Amino acid sequence: QVQLVESGGGLVQAGGSLRLSCSASGRIFSMNTMGWYRQALGKQRELVALITRGGSTNYADSVKGRFTISGDYAKNTVYLQMNSLKPEDTAVYYCDAEVNYGPSYHYWGQGTQVTVSS
Fold first, then answer.
1. What pLDDT does residue 102 have?
2. How much is the pLDDT for 44?
3. What is the mean pLDDT of residues 42-46?
4. What is the dihedral of CA 47, 49, 52, 53, to 10 degrees?
5. Lowest CB count within 10 Å: 19, 70, 116, 118, which one?
6. What are the two backbone dihedrals, phi and then psi, of residue 113, each rounded to the nearest 5 degrees?
7. How far apart (Å, rounded) are the C-alpha atoms in residues 68 and 57?
8. d(CA 36, CA 90)
9. What is the mean pLDDT of residues 48-75?
Protein backbone atom coordinates (compact mmCIF):
# COMPACT_ATOMS: atom_id res chain seq x y z
CA GLN A 1 0.00 0.00 0.00
CA VAL A 2 0.96 3.61 -0.56
CA GLN A 3 0.04 6.52 1.66
CA LEU A 4 0.00 10.13 0.56
CA VAL A 5 0.00 12.91 3.12
CA GLU A 6 -0.76 16.47 2.07
CA SER A 7 -0.08 19.65 3.99
CA GLY A 8 -0.10 23.39 3.46
CA GLY A 9 -3.72 24.25 2.82
CA GLY A 10 -5.53 27.02 4.61
CA LEU A 11 -7.33 30.33 4.33
CA VAL A 12 -5.76 33.17 2.36
CA GLN A 13 -6.93 36.45 0.89
CA ALA A 14 -7.17 36.92 -2.85
CA GLY A 15 -3.76 37.72 -4.30
CA GLY A 16 -1.99 35.72 -1.62
CA SER A 17 0.12 32.59 -1.83
CA LEU A 18 0.14 29.09 -0.42
CA ARG A 19 2.48 26.13 -0.84
CA LEU A 20 1.14 22.60 -0.76
CA SER A 21 3.31 19.59 -0.04
CA CYS A 22 2.63 15.90 -0.52
CA SER A 23 4.80 13.02 0.62
CA ALA A 24 4.31 9.43 -0.44
CA SER A 25 5.38 6.44 1.61
CA GLY A 26 4.90 2.71 1.60
CA ARG A 27 5.51 0.07 -1.04
CA ILE A 28 6.94 2.26 -3.80
CA PHE A 29 9.30 0.91 -6.44
CA SER A 30 9.07 3.89 -8.71
CA MET A 31 6.60 6.56 -9.62
CA ASN A 32 5.73 7.72 -13.09
CA THR A 33 3.95 10.94 -12.21
CA MET A 34 2.86 12.98 -9.22
CA GLY A 35 0.27 15.66 -9.41
CA TRP A 36 -2.42 17.79 -7.88
CA TYR A 37 -6.14 17.76 -8.54
CA ARG A 38 -8.86 19.87 -6.98
CA GLN A 39 -12.56 19.60 -6.40
CA ALA A 40 -14.70 22.61 -5.67
CA LEU A 41 -18.08 22.25 -4.01
CA GLY A 42 -20.60 20.88 -6.48
CA LYS A 43 -18.02 20.39 -9.23
CA GLN A 44 -16.06 17.50 -10.64
CA ARG A 45 -12.47 16.84 -9.66
CA GLU A 46 -10.10 18.46 -12.14
CA LEU A 47 -6.40 18.32 -12.88
CA VAL A 48 -4.41 21.29 -11.56
CA ALA A 49 -0.85 20.25 -12.40
CA LEU A 50 1.31 17.20 -12.74
CA ILE A 51 4.99 16.45 -13.10
CA THR A 52 6.59 13.36 -14.56
CA ARG A 53 9.64 11.61 -13.26
CA GLY A 54 11.53 13.16 -16.15
CA GLY A 55 10.50 16.64 -15.11
CA SER A 56 7.84 17.39 -17.72
CA THR A 57 4.94 19.42 -16.38
CA ASN A 58 1.35 19.98 -17.36
CA TYR A 59 -0.97 22.67 -16.01
CA ALA A 60 -4.63 23.50 -16.23
CA ASP A 61 -5.14 26.63 -18.29
CA SER A 62 -6.76 28.35 -15.31
CA VAL A 63 -3.57 28.17 -13.23
CA LYS A 64 -0.86 28.68 -15.84
CA GLY A 65 1.48 31.48 -14.84
CA ARG A 66 0.27 31.44 -11.23
CA PHE A 67 0.97 27.93 -9.97
CA THR A 68 4.23 26.00 -10.13
CA ILE A 69 4.60 22.27 -9.51
CA SER A 70 7.89 20.74 -8.48
CA GLY A 71 8.89 17.28 -7.40
CA ASP A 72 11.63 15.38 -5.68
CA TYR A 73 11.27 11.79 -6.82
CA ALA A 74 14.15 10.69 -4.63
CA LYS A 75 12.03 11.72 -1.65
CA ASN A 76 8.67 10.83 -3.25
CA THR A 77 7.51 14.37 -2.60
CA VAL A 78 5.67 16.89 -4.74
CA TYR A 79 4.97 20.57 -4.12
CA LEU A 80 2.54 23.09 -5.51
CA GLN A 81 3.41 26.75 -5.17
CA MET A 82 0.25 28.79 -5.65
CA ASN A 83 0.58 32.54 -6.21
CA SER A 84 -1.92 35.23 -7.09
CA LEU A 85 -4.71 33.11 -5.66
CA LYS A 86 -8.28 33.85 -6.67
CA PRO A 87 -11.57 33.00 -4.97
CA GLU A 88 -12.26 30.52 -7.77
CA ASP A 89 -9.21 28.54 -6.64
CA THR A 90 -11.14 27.58 -3.52
CA ALA A 91 -11.39 23.79 -3.41
CA VAL A 92 -10.13 20.65 -1.76
CA TYR A 93 -6.75 19.84 -3.29
CA TYR A 94 -5.77 16.21 -3.68
CA CYS A 95 -2.35 14.76 -4.30
CA ASP A 96 -2.09 11.93 -6.81
CA ALA A 97 0.76 9.50 -7.41
CA GLU A 98 1.03 7.02 -10.24
CA VAL A 99 3.11 4.16 -8.86
CA ASN A 100 4.74 1.72 -11.22
CA TYR A 101 4.65 -1.99 -10.38
CA GLY A 102 4.77 -3.19 -13.97
CA PRO A 103 1.23 -2.06 -14.46
CA SER A 104 0.75 1.25 -12.70
CA TYR A 105 -1.74 2.28 -10.05
CA HIS A 106 -2.96 5.66 -8.85
CA TYR A 107 -3.09 6.57 -5.19
CA TRP A 108 -4.74 9.61 -3.66
CA GLY A 109 -4.22 11.67 -0.56
CA GLN A 110 -7.10 12.64 1.71
CA GLY A 111 -7.13 16.22 0.49
CA THR A 112 -6.35 19.61 1.94
CA GLN A 113 -8.75 22.55 1.92
CA VAL A 114 -7.70 25.77 0.22
CA THR A 115 -10.01 28.73 0.75
CA VAL A 116 -9.41 32.08 -0.94
CA SER A 117 -11.43 35.00 0.36
CA SER A 118 -12.27 38.02 -1.77
1. 85
2. 97
3. 97
4. -120
5. 118
6. -80, 130
7. 9
8. 14
9. 96
